[in-house]
Amino acid sequence: NAGVMQNPRHLVRRRGQEARLRCSPMKGHSHVYWYRQLPEEGLKFMVYLQKENIIDESGMPKERFSAEFPKEGPSILRIQQVVRGDSAAYFCASSPRIEVSYGYTFGSGTRLTVV
Amino acid sequence: QQQVKQSPQSLIVQKGGISIINCAYENTAFDYFPWYQQFPGKGPALLIAIRPDVSEKKEGRFTISFNKSAKQFSLHIMDSQPGDSATYFCAASSKEGAQKLVFGQGTRLTINP
What is the pLDDT of residue A102? Predict the structure, then answer.
């Protein structure tokens, strides 16, 4: 089991470009969570998805950010028209069922730098 | 209400000493309290977790102490080793909502040899 795979590991974008971050959950995991970690801070919840459904997006900025988890393929976090303040590490986690205490596993993250 | 406050921000301990990191929360609906360890360039990895029906949980050199009435919990690392040098995060979650984790701000722990 390869674990939660995130790519790319590092992503550099100029202001105004789009960033696409991918997360492949562990085999058998149908629940995906995205978190953002600003420098020297803890992780902040962004969005929770199950296959083809957004369950909770209460932590997502209202504009420029979107997430999907299609029936086939990885979950995608998309940031349009990036700004310097979007520079952060973005982590996804996956789990086989809804309880956070059961098999909740993080990937190694994508470090986004906006120049 | 959703915050988890963690202290200290950074901690330096001599090899063989005890490292203690503290967290406090407000939301009484929280019912699961994990600690995560994060090395540079890696994602957080679950270290140990506790539920509020017990006051202490021990796994090897790592112990969580939980005080429900004070709404506080702490991580103790006994016989701290240089390999324990990492950033530690406390977190909390509740059955309400989507089982998301609310994280503390993190503690950068350095164990001097």
Answer: 79
